[in-house]
Design brief:
Layout (H helix, E strand, L loop, with lengths): L2 H9 L1 H7 L2 E3 L7 E5 L3 E8 L3 E8 L8 E2 H7 L16 H15 L1 H4 L7 H8 L3 H9 L7 H17 L1
Antiparallel strand pairs: 1-2, 2-3, 3-4, 4-5
Helix pairs in contact: 1-4, 6-7, 7-8
């Protein structure tokens, strides 16, 4: 068994016990681990040159159906977590612990697949459907987060340029 997979089994055990996820084996050269749950999946990627990134998505697994943890952090109005994903500064085991803590604390709606409210917003942002995105953001519950306010301002600025 590869080192990343062993560390992931230890750090992300809560995905199995609390959410019913199943750990999948590491892929090429011990750089990627995937967990599959009843409605969603979680994937962790380690670039040995010094980066760990993590993403979530709805089943079935698809690279197009990927939401980066950093995007979730920004969406929630949290500082972008890039600094905690640098394994050249911190051992990968500690980075995986931080990712696990972030998942446990902030990502329950995505882990359970109960993220219906935010999926259309993320899809509109990803596909740059700015008029739709502005409408969806305006329909979100108040108060808007910093990300939502910035995204709405961006939509209006781009719409003014296009008109």
């Amino acid at each position: 068994m590869h080192a990343l997979f062993e560390a992931a089994l230890a750090k992300f055990k809560f995905l199995e016990t609390e959410f019913g996820y199943v750990a999948r084996d590491a892929f090429v050269d011990d750089v990627r681990v995937r967990y599959e749950g009843p409605r969603a999946w979680f994937e962790c990627f380690h670039d040995p040159r010094g980066e760990v990134s993590a993403s979530l998505g709805r089943n079935p697994w698809s690279s197009e159906n990927r939401l980066m943890i950093s995007t979730i952090a920004v969406r929630l109005g949290l500082p972008p977590p890039e600094d905690i994903y640098s394994s050249d500064v911190t051992p990968v085991d500690q980075v995986l612990e931080r990712v696990a803590e972030f998942l446990r604390k902030y990502c329950r709606p995505w882990l359970t697949g109960d993220d219906e409210l935010w999926i259309p917003v993320m899809e509109a942002w990803t596909s740059q459907q700015l008029r739709r995105l502005a409408r969806l953001i305006q329909e979100l519950p108040s108060p808007l987060t910093r990300w939502e306010i910035r995204a709405l301002e961006y939509c209006h600025e781009r719409a003014e340029r296009e008109d």
